Amino acid sequence: MSYDLIVIGGGPAGYVAAIRAAQLGKKVVCVEKERAGGTCLNWGCIPTKSLLRNAELYQIMTKQAEEFGMKFDNLTYDWEKIVKRSRVVSDKNAAGIEFLFKKNKVDYVLGEASVPKAGVVEVNGKDGKKQTIEGKNILISTGCLSRPMPNLPFNGTTVISSKEAMVIPKQPKSLVVIGAGAIGVEFAYFFNAFGTKVTVVEMLPNILPVEDTEVSQTLEKSFAKQGITVLTNTKVTSAEATDKGVKITVEGAKNETIEAEVCLVAIGVQAVLPPGLKLDLDRGYIKTNDRYETSIKGIYAAGDIIGPPWLAHVASYEAIQAVEGMFTPGAKPKKVTTFPGCTYCHPQVASVGLTERAAKEKGIKYKIGKFPFMASGKARAIGDIDGFVKLIMGEEHGEIIGAHIIGPEATEMIAEMGLAITLEATHEDIAATIHAHPTLTEAIHEAAEQAYGKAIHI
Amino acid sequence: MPDITMPKLSDTMTEGTVVKWHKKTGDKVSAGEVIADVETDKATMEMEAFDDGVLEQIYLQEGQKVNVGGRLAYVRGEGETGPAPEEKKAPAKADATSPKAEATTPVKAGAPAPAPVINNGRVKASPLAKKIAAKKGIDLSRITGTGPGGRIVQADLLNAPTGGGAAAPAAISIPVPTGNGTRIPLSGMRRIIADRLYASKTQIPHFYLTIEIDAEPLMRLRKDINAVQEENGAPKVTVNDFVVMAAAHAAKAHPKVNAAFAGDSVFEYSDINVSVAIAVEEGLVTPVIRNADKLSLRDLSSAIKDFATRARAKKLKPEEYQGGTLTISNLGAYGVDNFSAIINPPQALILAVGAIVKKPVVNAQDKIVVGHTMAITLSADHRVVDGAIGAEYFKTLRSLLENPATMLF
């Protein structure tokens, strides 16, 4: 029997591709070596959000109880249960994917896949059985794994990646985080919230270096207030794992040696290439054309495996584009241009479109609209007033080209701005849309108006 | 197998109408087989299938039009399985507008010029696209959207023709006809005539020169030639055949008129290709006589006759319209004495030829006698051709037409 599509990897690219192809009436099989859901559901987005919810609640109870008029004695937490809850959340979600496969009649094979040639996938089954699957099209969505530091290999206990960090059996007393991207920053916030002494080391001038500089700087100040040591413009010159933990020597504003129980290396990811055919690569990731096809006809790739940004929602988008390109007559797949990015520390950070820095580099004439949550009634009511909404608009027409939010529920609010960019909305469209009161989204409305001197509350 | 989409059959084609389907859904089609007649802005052409298969679905009914690239039908390849493409309201189809729908589109007084290709009266465009279009005077109804659901987005406007910058609202100020009457939707051809001649007359600085030539020698020679032709049962040569020949020969002597304005330069053509205006039912077409300066009168004459026949039958091929370097429009057969024409861009020269008329002329002996004259008016693009160059060209043209035998060897 021959499939219309063989998907290798069951993460946010793979499972979405398999289901969409099935919806298009195609015969599909998904080969997954571990568990459906990929990094996102099992070892990324979902379990970490579960952990971060704990951090948020604990922070409110320890830092804001008095403000809210609450009192309790002996507030404690059970680390093991915190971790366990995150695993339960993961399990339920992953089981949900397997259910969706059944519902959509997607065949699901557990095992490790290799691609000896176009149209053929060999699977070393988890159950020990070997099988050969044939199909007209193959989609590779095998994703990425954490990239190790040169000279400081992962050892699973004191030098760890995010995967070990989220199931660490005992809370470390001290933690050094190398790399201040979304992953590094979220774990720094998480461990610090529970009292671990956290130091963040970032080579670039700011933490969350892809975000708008103003946002990064605001987060740095907030982190400092929360007690996290942030070392930016700082390079790791040597690192060693010791009996008691790690010793990291850095070179920055000052040269020092940091000792910690655990070191979380969050400097990026590397592609997990399936064995078999040699596909053309671009900087270590599978190279694809406009239709997500690799250098070999009939073999496609989508998701983290084709390079940055390594985001679940981008992977799913790519997967759908690739599949519709394969099976829908006349479809012209689109590549990702605008996508939201979210970091779930506190205050939350979310953005879509261009940063002010990028607008400047591109020579775009722009206008800025800004509104602080300090002036938002809702933010004050919920006791969360740090941060702001910053909109970047084209100078001539006022179209939204970038939106940056740092503050409460930033990650939920960014969707409106993503839609605005997709629809090519202008500041007038934002202004003409009534935003419910009292909500945090009023800050977006006010930011759009502020650019033209029309904000009411500031 | 992909959809069958509206092919771009000529340089200027932006949309096409399916005139007739030769196949119905479920019919087998094979590569090269004619499946439909498609009307472009210039002609009706036969459209062939590219692959073998079964015509599974027709998206565009007879009489409906769609932008170039829009879906016409779906042919399932042999051996292909799976369901028919389920997307019933694909973007391209949304562009399709039946002539009937157009005719009933209400036009508000004072609204922008009526837009022929609209989706149920609504143009799908992003707020930014609308703003840019308003500022630049771009008619959004003529743009094909590439955004989600066929929406017009900023990127679609990058190369859009503008109505002349910020002054575009001029188009808005043209009053819309009201009162009793019939609204006749523009055919592809009428749309092209409207667009190109409007652009020509408003953007090209025209100037005009008129001469009246002594047509007696031409009439005599034509009579002699046609006498022989008649004897041989061959078709007669027309006055216009001589004019086309003379215009081409004169252009060879004055290459500066056989040119076009190209923004930062003037482009002089190496070949002399004469576009000949031919009236057809819906408007006019201008097929091109290539290397007209190198053709014999016989070849020239039969080429023009062939064009005229095929133009009226809408059987001209797109490439036969392309590459003209100057144009001749002759209304002599309709009894028009004299007129001036609008330049056919990007060319720089058009000749408007009137009828040969009997009138009193002053002859070489300064006597007033009954003579035969023919008026020719030249319209030229002043950015390319100056008055004196036009006059030089006319001098040669006059000499050739008044001594027509010199052209024949």
Can you tag this structure with a few keywords?
heterodimer; A: 458 residues; alpha/beta; 5-stranded parallel beta sheet; 27% strand; B: 409 residues; alpha+beta; 6-stranded mixed beta sheet; 9 helices
Task: Provide the fold topology.
The complex is a heterodimer of chains A (458) and B (409).
Chain A: E1 2-8, H1 14-23, E2 28-32, H2 38-43, H3 45-63, H4 79-103, E3 107-117, E4 120-125, E5 130-140, E6 144-146, E7 159-160, H5 162-165, E8 174-178, H6 182-193, E9 197-201, H7 213-226, E10 229-231, E11 235-241, E12 246-251, E13 256-260, E14 262-265, E15 269-271, E16 281-282, E17 285-286, E18 299-301, H8 312-327, E19 340-343, E20 348-353, H9 356-361, E21 366-372, H10 377-381, E22 388-394, E23 400-407, H11 410-422, H12 427-432, H13 442-450
Parallel strand pairs in A: 1-2, 1-5, 2-3, 5-18, 7-14, 8-9, 8-14, 9-10
Antiparallel strand pairs in A: 3-4, 4-5, 6-15, 11-12, 12-13, 16-17, 19-20, 20-23, 21-22, 22-23
Helix pairs in contact in A: 1-8, 3-4, 3-6
Chain B: E1 3-5, E2 15-21, E3 28-29, E4 34-39, E5 44-48, E6 53-58, E7 65-67, E8 71-77, H1 91-95, H2 99-103, H3 127-136, H4 169-173, H5 188-203, E9 206-214, H6 216-231, H7 239-253, E10 259-261, E11 266-268, E12 274-276, E13 278-280, E14 283-285, E15 288-289, H8 297-312, E16 326-330, E17 349-362, E18 368-381, H9 387-402
Parallel strand pairs in B: 12-16, 16-17
Antiparallel strand pairs in B: 1-8, 2-4, 2-7, 3-6, 4-5, 6-8, 9-18, 10-11, 12-15, 13-14, 17-18
Helix pairs in contact in B: 7-8, 7-9
The percent range for strand residues of chain B is 15-25%
Specify Rg of chain B, calculated over alpha carbons: 25 Å
Total count of strands of chain A: 23
What strand order characterises the main sheet of chain A? 1-2-3-4-5
Could you estimate the helical fraction of the residues of chain A in percent?
A: 25-40%
